[in-house]
């Protein structure tokens, strides 16, 4: 036990991003996943990933190699969809969640120069369990870069008033929150009866959740929380004007917590990773809707294989050659600044 505590102490004093000396976080990839054995097992027990997307093999060695493929030296691992909610909302899910966070923290201790993580949380409808895990991450473990959450829980979007206590808790820790798309309850479940949801439905889920977080007032009420949207914001850059424009209609503005000017500013103030989202249409849209300082590297390993990661990165490099405002050194600095701002307080 003493040894473990010593390890943690050592890790948190020397290696955590908040410690000034060692964290280079070069081109930190904030959208990259781990599939710990306990999670793979939970998926199996549940009959597989309900998104229709096959679950790939994962390893920490593969993770490090994948980072190198895009010139990154640091990955902030998270648990992809469906995450802990696959185990329901009871004690089994809470136990799984804790095991995943300990596993991820162990990885950061073993690979301090290369690996950080977004803490896993239970299904937010388990409000007490979610708050307890946030407290564990920030008050006890103190190793996570931030937390991961999903675009919906059952039929609730993350800005639903049901979740107010969770947002208050995240605000109290000034958390960095990574929003990953979740499986959508849409009908038919799959386009053409076969297309996995990540292709088209996930970007829509991100847009729905992002607009919800702004219109519900969550973003206004959590000024110290920064939120990263996946995949260049899904379709948000494309539809942002449609969303804030709706607030010029009095009957709609009447129901919204924010006016259109505030909505524009809050959309711009999200952070956006470019995982598998580097087409000129997506990157131009992104730059028209946020500041270059809010753009982050992402790859989606291992759900994206090395071929896909390399071709997406080539697209990004082509674009960045003509848009130095989001060249690799800029993305590198963006992540470093963001991660250091939210480093857990020891
Ligand atoms: C984490 O590391 C500790 C210390 O090495 C070990 O005892 C424990 O089994 C590990 N837990 C997980 C979930 O990997
Ligand atoms: C919203 O609209 C309702 C009904 O039209 C009205 O009674 C109410 O005062 C309006 N609220 C605001 C904040 O404008």
UniProtKB/TrEMBL annotation:
CDD domains: metallo-dependent_hydrolases (cd01292). It is an enzyme of class 4 (lyase). Its EC number is 4.1.1.52. Pfam families: Amidohydro_2. It catalyses: 6-methylsalicylate + H(+) = 3-methylphenol + CO2. Residues 89-336 form the Amidohydrolase-related domain. The keyword Zinc applies. It comes from the Eukaryota. Residues 1-21 form the signal peptide. Keywords: Decarboxylase, Lyase, Metal-binding, Signal, Zinc. Gene3D superfamilies: Metal-dependent hydrolases. GO terms for molecular function: 6-methylsalicylate decarboxylase activity; hydrolase activity; metal ion binding. GO terms for biological process: secondary metabolic process. GO terms for cellular component: cytosol. InterPro entries: ACMSD (IPR032465), Amidohydro-rel (IPR006680), Metal_Hydrolase (IPR032466). Belongs to the metallo-dependent hydrolases superfamily. ACMSD family. This is 6-methylsalicylate decarboxylase. It comes from Talaromyces rugulosus (Penicillium rugulosum).
């Amino acid at each position: 036990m003493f040894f473990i505590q010593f390890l943690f102490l050592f890790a948190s004093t020397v290696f955590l991003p908040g410690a000034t000396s060692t964290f280079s976080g070069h081109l930190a990839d904030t959208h990259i996943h781990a599939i710990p054995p306990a999670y793979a097992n939970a998926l199996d027990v549940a009959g597989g990933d309900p998104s229709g997307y096959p679950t790939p093999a994962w390893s920490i060695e593969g993770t490090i190699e994948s980072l190198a493929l895009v010139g990154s030296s640091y990955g902030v691992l998270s648990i992809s969809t469906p995450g802990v909610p696959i185990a329901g909302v009871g004690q089994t899910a809470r136990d799984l969640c804790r095991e995943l966070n300990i596993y991820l923290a162990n990885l950061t201790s073993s690979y301090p120069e290369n690996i950080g993580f977004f803490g896993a949380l239970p299904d937010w409808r388990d409000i007490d369990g979610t708050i307890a895990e946030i407290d564990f991450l920030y008050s006890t473990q103190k190793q996570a870069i931030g937390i991961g959450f999903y675009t919906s829980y059952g039929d609730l979007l993350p800005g639903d008033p049901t979740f107010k206590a969770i947002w208050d808790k995240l605000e109290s820790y000034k958390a960095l929150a990574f929003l990953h798309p979740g499986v959508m309850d849409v009908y038919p479940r799959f386009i053409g009866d076969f297309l996995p949801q990540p292709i088209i439905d996930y970007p829509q889920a991100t847009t729905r959740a992002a607009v919800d977080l702004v219109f519900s007032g969550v973003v206004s009420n959590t000024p110290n929380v920064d939120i990263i949207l996946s995949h260049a914001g899904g379709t948000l850059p494309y539809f942002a004007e449609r969303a804030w424009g709706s607030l010029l209609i009095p009957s709609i503005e009447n129901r919204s917590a924010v006016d259109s000017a505030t909505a524009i500013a809050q959309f711009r103030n999200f952070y956006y990773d470019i995982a598998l989202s580097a087409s000129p249409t997506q990157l131009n849209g992104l730059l028209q809707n946020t500041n270059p300082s809010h753009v982050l590297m992402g790859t989606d390993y291992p759900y994206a294989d090395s071929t896909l990661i390399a071709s997406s990165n080539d697209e990004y490099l082509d674009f960045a050659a003509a848009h130095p405002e989001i060249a690799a050194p800029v993305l590198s600095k963006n992540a470093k600044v963001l991660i250091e701002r939210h480093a857990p307080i020891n």
